[in-house]
Amino acid sequence: MGLDLRWNDGFLKWDPSKYGNVTHLVVPEDHVWTPMLALANPIDRIPVFPEDSFPVRIYSNGMIIWIRGGTVSITCQPNVRYYPYDRHTCTAIFLTIDRIRNELVMETDLRPVILNQNEEWDIVEMKAHLCSFDAYSCSQFVITIKRHPEFSVLNICIPIICFGILNACVFLIPPESGERVSFAITVLLSFAVFMTIFTSILPKNSDPVPILSYILMFMMIESGIIVILTIVGLRIHHGQKLSNFSLNCFCKQLANCQDKVKDEQNPLNGSVLSENNEQQGEPGPRSESWSRLQFFDMVCFCISLAGFVIMVSVFAILVIVP
Fold first, then answer.
1. Keyword Transmembrane helix, does the record have it (predicted)?
2. How far is the C-alpha of 118 from the C-alpha of 138, rounded, in Å?
């Protein structure tokens, strides 16, 4: 950060015509009085650029210009609610600790600045205004920055969307393959890995919590429920009875819904007659369990996919649209 400090000293005026037409002088900073600048909200040190020495330019009319620059570390309260489209406001408060308000009054002005492009952040807005800090006059600079979202979108958001789609596709895997449970658990572990990576990027005490964290947590919960439903579907496939009362009732309700759908599609549902009006045999328990498994998979696939679409839509509305 660079600071352009200017003030007028009535004791350092001269007539250039009497001194060889010398209009200005450049002297070390310890040869004249200079304000002792300090930060009101520092991270490590209060004085500004204490280890560096900058020359002072003195003009014949008493105007003194002192340009200082260096690295300034200030406190900044992070707000990662809308990560990776988050914005942060940082404030730098400068004051003179050797003069109080009735001895020195600061004036603040923002001039065109030269900024180095940063790969992660862009400066959106800069403001400057006067303020008071106890008995001191101070200048406050407010800088608003925003994150470049491309890296986080490509490396975090898009993989999460892909895993969310794969999460619902577990119900499309044939039960005979024996890979349903392992596939569902793999997706669940993938969500856990991404949750760990995501939390390592953010500040440890981030308040408020990012919306993406809630979305990722809900997807992990949905993935865990899908693992349970996958196990239930395999038990239905093998014709095993469910000991859990709630799961048993749930499957019975699905079976009733399936029967209603069949009745609506075929009002003459019942025994099937051949061309010779001979009654065909009832479908066996194996075909009945297979039919119920297909209906169960279809319902679970639609519900899980709809839940995923709703979560992505909520994230887009709350984070991207604003």
1. yes
2. 29
Q: What is the DSSP secondary structure assignment for residue 296, as one 8-state letter?
A: H
**What is the C-alpha to C-alpha distance for residues 157 and 179, in angstroms, rounded to an integer?**
26
Peptide bond into 175 cis (omega under 30): no
Same-domain status, 93 and 238:
no
Segment 202-205 long-range contacts (CB within 8 Å, at least 24 positions apart): 202/80, 202/83, 203/78, 203/80
Q: What is the pTM of this model?
A: 0.70
The tens digit of pLDDT for each residue in 216-234 reads 899 999 999 999 988 888 8
- How far, CA to CA in Å, does 188 sit from each of 129, 219, 228? 51, 9, 12
* pLDDT, tens only, 279-312: 444 445 555 556 777 888 888 899 999 999 999 9
**226 and 312 together in one domain:** yes
Question: For residue 308, which of 165, 183, 155 has the smallest C-alpha distance?
Answer: 165
Tell me how far apart the alpha carbons of residues 97 and 40 are, in angstroms, rounded to a whole number.
10
Same domain, 14 and 154: no
Cα–Cα distance, 195 to 215 (Å, whole number): 10
Structural domains counted in the chain: 2
- In this structure, the answer to whether residues 283 and 217 fall within a common structural domain is yes
Cis peptide before 208 (omega within 30 of 0): yes
In a domain, 269, yes or no: no
What is the greatest pairwise CA distance in the chain?
A: 132
**How many angstroms separate the first and last alpha carbons of the chain?**
31
List Cβ neighbours of 273 (8 Å cut-off, separation of 6 or more).
279, 280
List Cβ neighbours of 220 (8 Å cut-off, separation of 6 or more): 188, 191, 192, 195
- The answer to whether the CB of 208 falls within 8 A of the CB of 146 is no
- Whole-angstrom Cα distance, residue 238 to residue 228? 16
